[in-house]
Amino acid sequence: MKISLFIPCFIDACYPQVGISMAQVLERLGHQVEYPEDFTCCGQPAFNSGYWDEARAVAEKVLAMYRSAEIIVGVSGSCGAMMTTFYKELFHGTPLEAEANAHAAKCWEFSDFLVTKLGVTDVGAKFPAKVTFHDGCHGLRELGLKKQPRALLAKVKGLELIEMGAAESCCGFGGTFAVKFPMISTAMGEVKCDSALKTNADYIVSCDASCLMHIQGLADRQKKPLRTMHLAEVLAKQ
Amino acid sequence: MSEREPILGRIREALRAAAPKPGLLSGPGQRVPAHEKRPTDFRPWLPAVGESFDERAALFAKNSAELKTDFQLVADRAELQTKLVALAHAEGWKKIATHAGDLTNFAFAALGMPVVRTDSRYDVNELESSDAGITECDALVAQTGSVVVTTRSAGGRALSVLPPHHVVLARRDQLLRDLPAAFAALKRQYGSDYPSMMCLITGPSRTGDIERILVLGAHGPKKLTIFCL
Amino acid sequence: MSTVAQTFKETARRLTRDLRHRELIQNALGKYYVGRDEKKARFQNWQEARQAAAEIKWDAVNHLDKYLEEFVSKLEARGTKVFWASTGQQACDYIVEVAKKRNVRSIVKSKAMTGEEIHLAQALEKSGVEVVETDLGEYIVQLREEPPYHIVFPAMHLTRHEISDLFTKKLGTAPTDNPEELTMIARRTLRKKYCAADMGISGANFAVAETGMISLTTNEGNGRLSTSLPKVHVAVIGIEKVLPTLDDLALFLPMLATAGAAQAVSCYNTFIGGPRQDGESDGPEEFHVVLLDNGRTRLLADAEQRDTLHCIRCGACLNVCPIYKNIGGHTYGTTYMGPIGSVLTPHLRGLKEWKHLSFASSLCGACTEACPVKIDLHHHLLQNRRNAIRCASPWWEKLIFKGFVTLMNHPAFYRLGVKLGWFGQKFHWLVKGTRLDPMYAWTQSREAPPLALHTFKDYWRRKKS
Ligand code: SF4
Fold first, then answer.
1. C-alpha C317 to ligand 1 mean position (Å)
2. Which of A149, A217, C149, C204 is 20–30 Å from B17 (CA)?
3. Which residue puts its alpha carbon closest to atom 8 of ligand 1?
4. What distances in angstroms separate CA C202 from CA A69, C107, C199, one per listed residue?
């Protein structure tokens, strides 16, 4: 299968390893991957801040860039939700509505793609560690990611998954919310860190690097012994 | 001045634009296909209830235990009499309140103690100082452990809620399956001439307003006893 | 920034750091989650039930004129006086007038969020009538002279000790840390009030058009007592409360209780269709229904967000909201708090002053998932943000997003930006976490993620060549 990668801006700039891991896993499974190098951002920061016109200006380019793609696989639950659910809303009633819908239908989040579309759960990964899983809200509620990442983790050799309490509650990142209301965002993050710490896991794993960025940043500042890792990185370990 | 026409006018004006149908934006875990017509039969989705009397009675008993309702099946009037007298004794009732009815009359006779009747105008303070209010009912609902009362079946509005102990006398054929059956029964019974108050009572009065800790008897009865004959 | 927004931020800052508050709320709601999941699991199909409830409410709200007329004509046929109020003021004036006419000196009020919305108790007190809240939680917050903390659990923020102290101070009772004894103190005090009151005030959870009845849900029985004993009963109802048929309650009553309070159904669901009828031995001589618009028709006119009027005020969205759980109910400064409050308030009280509520959300969608009538709450928060930006946005923010578009739509700029950022972050430590830090909003409480020297784009280039 020819797969077009979708690498969100902050993963490109801050967490390239996450993107690289996804590309490696897909290639290891025998797929041909390509990447539109001009891709930058899906427009979510503007959309979430109320700047829908600006978001549309960015999103239009994205639609054009992936127009000929057969299948688009992305490595972020949140940006994935943007390209599926929220593009439909963003382009509702505009000439590009049909195209946004067609685009949404081609988009997959990485774990969902592996498990639901390819029917693969064992990617041959090995990672001897205790991990706990944080359900990123957009992945969970907009894309229905719940069983898929867990099915993949279950097949990673040596890995033990310990569920944390309230795994489904928000970590407090929320995009621009994190900087507009840092006090609330931080409090939510603390609650999340506490749940994770109680499991004694070595790593918090998630499908969303943005949640992990927030959790890690908070844990580092508060000197909490927490490490985070994206699911793609876990799956790339051998 | 009542603003009836201006409000209705604003409503009609507002409704000229059509609203999107519900559920279109639901996430995958919550999405179900829209129903073609607005649904009227809720049974397939509500909590399940068995068909037979025994299943209904068992479920009612289970719900009652959870709700802290004292639910007792009694075989006949003789047993009812024994149990009522024992209850009155155990609780130390000195005065009861009740209304006219086949079962309530029997209970009143069996208990033989001072009584406040709420069939016509009565003194609220007398009712308030009664130890128990004994009523009949329209139905029992197995699905939820509820008792259906109305002003007509249960001696007015206050009898079933003001005294500290509410005793319900019901017949087996009144034990219905579920809420849809209960509303259907009310419709059948009263048609277009409904009593001014109908109520679905589910357990004794309760509150959790202090640290979410359950306390019975917040304002209404602290105890609810149901005898099903 | 508006002063209400300022106050919101300041209170939020204080409460989010209050670990005692955090624990109190988490504990209170912890019990709710367990019970709710268990009750939900009893439904044969919760998602179908939600969809059905949403469709029924959609039908009701989108034919509101028809159903309201039906509701009112049925009510009036049995001697109920119906008053239509465009504003809260009109509603208050009418009720004060009724109280005057009937020589009312004391009123027992069962919980009604519409009453809170229009400040009814204050209006009546000003006219010299005593108003006592009878819901235990409402009674407690009334004694404390503060608004409810939650639309279903008004005194959720208080410990038994605080309540005991309050009772000692206001009622002169002996201190106790037993919730049951505390409840009994309130029971004894309020019993006297019920028997003496001349008027009972309630809200309604539903208004059944088919039979002309209000449906009133309480657990404590205060709703029944307030509507049985006094000679006048007044119900204040938002116009959106209609349900087409009596049978619909078979779906809505269990959903309301399950979603809102983790119960199969609430203790007392009371359906009132008029004042005392011929042949009835008790009940009020007069029954007044006040139908309240107060901004609802404005919301109705917004087709995109019309489903907000489906709300049955169950409180489920508050219970699951991580924002609510961290900032608590009073911080909002609104009648309706939590997600539904953040969606509604800008419509009811003005977007300009209240838009901050729509921004104060991580858009996690827990509210939307919890809502029994499927209101698209977090989508509406996004729409409110869009509308807020359209009507007014700070110039500097506009500039930032113009810059954002330029950067993102020109990959070369973007690459350059990332490289410059990488270089710039070398000097970040000089200002990090201080007010001079351009990333202060982030770095005041969190470490910033380092920009990578070799980005994914670099990796891809290398890989290709
Ligand atoms: S918006 Fe939904 S969840 Fe929130 S109070 Fe209203 S009905 Fe309940």
1. 5
2. C204
3. C314
4. 60, 11, 10
Cross-chain residue pair A11–C360, CB shorter than 8 Å: no
List chain B domain ranges: 52-228
C313 lines ligand 1 (CB under 6 A): yes
CB C317 within 8 A of CB C370: yes
Q: Which of B65, C199, C409 is nearest to A64 (CA)?
A: C409
Residue the block writes with tokens 């970040």: C428
pLDDT, one tens digit per residue, over C440-449 is 999 999 999 9
The CATH T-level fold of domain B52-228 is: Rossmann fold (3.40.50)
- CATH class held by domain C46-294: alpha beta
CATH of region A130-236: 3.40.50
Quickly list DSSP for B24-66.
TT--GGG--PPPSS-----TTTSPP--SSHHHHHHHHHHHHHH
* Amino acid type, B182: A
Cβ(A72)–Cβ(A107) under 8 Å? yes
What pLDDT was estimated at residue C391?
86
Please give the angle made by the CA atoms of A103, A107 and A109, to the nearest 5 degrees. 160
Burial class (CB in 10 A: 0-12, 13-18, 19+), B6: middle
Residues 6+ apart with CB under 8 A from A94: A56
How far is the centre of ligand 1, averaged over its atoms, from the C-alpha of C370 (Å)? 8
| ipTM of this complex | 0.97
Q: Given an 8 Å threshold on Cβ–Cβ distance, is B200 in contact with C269?
A: yes
This prediction has a pTM of: 0.96
**Quick count: other Cβ atoms within 10 Å of Cβ B201?**
30
Give residues with Cβ within 8 angstroms of C379, minimum separation 6. A89, B25, C368
Assign residue C172 a region: left if phi > 0, alpha if psi is -120 to 50, beta otherwise? left
| Measured distance CA(B128)–CA(C233) in Å, rounded | 20
**Measured between beta carbons, which residues in chain B are less than 8 angstroms from residue C273?**
194-198
- Where does CATH 3.40.50.10420 sit in chain C? 46-294
Q: What is the pLDDT of residues C263-288, one digit of tens each?
A: 999 999 999 999 999 999 999 999 99
Residues 4-63 of C with CB under 8 A from A: 9, 12-13, 16-17, 22, 26
